[in-house]
From TrEMBL:
PANTHER family noted in UniProt: ENVELOPE BIOGENESIS FACTOR ELYC, INNER MEMBRANE PROTEIN, PROBABLE PERMEASE
GO cellular component: plasma membrane
Database matches in Pfam families: DUF218
One GO process term, biological-process aspect: peptidoglycan metabolic process
Gene source species: Nitratireductor aestuarii
Domain DUF218: 26-147
CDD domains, A to Z: YdcF-like
Top-rank lineage group of the source organism: Bacteria
Protein name per UniProt: DUF218 domain-containing protein
InterPro entries in alphabetical order: Cell_Envelope_Assoc, DUF218, Rossmann-like_a/b/a_fold
Length: 192
């Protein structure tokens, strides 16, 4: 998804934009942060993703910068910068959450990716409350209907294929063993 990133200048890695499907979850995180602040709750957000595009900055850092720019304090954000895909992200975020022992875990994710993300997190012991934050619709847009339909079909196919692959790998014993369920602790609220 390198096309979904924008680099202002070749030597300036400060202006890399979040991936296209990240904007909905980022805006939901900002809204959730304000709700936490109003309720005097502690919210911790985890941004995840390595520098997959090779532009010198991780997806986790790009998302964290967007959250900070929107008013979320840097100390409320944990960056997981090692994962190269959703499976690895789920493993690493699971490790972080097992050490944090949050009282509640909410997954802020784009709707098309929600089912697979929840499945992978559950494999690593994290039962998250889903909060779909962006939807892929083929109406009410200025984008070409044909192009948008192809995008929707490709995203849907990829998500179903990845769920099928997960099931097959479990059946063949190729996935790592499932983790025990996350022990919830004393933090007021955590989000991934």
């Amino acid at each position: 998804m390198e096309w979904a990133r924008k680099k202002i200048a070749a030597d300036d890695r400060t202006y890399v934009e979040p991936l296209a499907f990240a904007y909905g979850p980022l805006m939901a995180a900002v809204d959730m942060y304000h709700q936490c602040a109003q309720g005097q709750l502690k919210c911790t957000f985890i941004t995840a993703g390595a520098d997959i595009a090779g532009n010198g900055i991780s997806e986790a850092e790009v998302s964290a910068r967007a959250l900070i720019k929107a008013g979320i304090p840097t100390q409320a954000i944990i960056r997981e910068e090692e994962s190269l895909n959703t499976w690895e992200s789920s493993r690493h975020v699971g490790e972080i959450l097992h050490s944090l022992k949050p009282k509640r875990v909410v997954l802020l994710q784009s709707a098309p990716m929600m089912k697979r993300s929840l499945l992978y997190l559950e494999h690593f012991g994290v039962i998250a409350e889903p909060m779909a934050a962006a939807y892929l619709t083929t109406s009410h847009t200025n984008m070409s209907a044909t192009g948008l339909n192809f995008l929707a079909a490709e995203v849907g196919f990829q998500e179903h294929f990845d769920i099928w692959r997960y099931t097959l790998y479990n059946y063949l014993g190729w996935n790592e063993p499932k983790e025990p369920p996350l022990a919830l602790g004393e933090l007021s609220q955590s989000s991934t």
